[in-house]
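pinging the channel bc i need a second pair of eyes. not urgent but kinda urgent?? the chain im working w is below, pasted from the shared doc
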Amino acid sequence: MSSELPQQKIEPLLESVSSKRARIVIKHILEHGFVTTEELKKLGYDHPPRAARDVREAGIPLETFRVQSSEGRSIAAYRFGDLSTVCAERIQGRKTFPKKLKRELYELSHGKCAICSGKFEARYLQIDHRVPYEVAGNLPGSEWNTDHYMLLCGSCNRAKSWSCEHCANWSRDKLVQVCLTCYWANPEDYAHIALREIRRVDMIWDEDELQAYEELKRLAQRNNVPVPDYVKRIIAKYLGEI
């Protein structure tokens, strides 16, 4: 349940927030009481949840609720949450990842995305906290420790962000151990995906494997099923023959 936040308590925090995007969101809420996704887009942010996430990562709680857009559609809006939960140590925002950390992660992963195993040039891979920063900040002893980070391609990073942001542990409980047993933190050994009892395999067919994929797609189409379902049929048949 939200509480009204005295402006005089938020304004000093605003001065310490280093993220430009977070500062703009905070100032808008201070002036108007809340900010909608529609307003954020007008402010130049095409991905409003990312702007809201910047505020949360700065340690300032936000609540999401629904309002009507100028066109009468139901859209998300953000307002301040409970001031007592402000995480002061995050106000200065994230520290910039050193180039050395990315080089080490790239060598350890052999240039592959931790989720889809696709191989990319280093510039196309992004460093990500295994346990989302919004949940735990920088864990004690984690600073630049490669065990606490992973490299993700842009597509997988966006997928992880969406899944995490819609997880109850992200928005409510913030239990580190729950994140550590999630697919998005440890795809090689996990118990759930954002608290859902499901399993997932992300696969990429690269260069010399394309012919195999095209044959797989042809067979799937001939059987009138999507490629993922056809892969499941093959696996089920193979396991049944073992």
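so Confidence is low (pLDDT under 50) at residues 1-6. and The chain is about 45% helix and 10% strand. — does that match what u expected or am i reading it wrong
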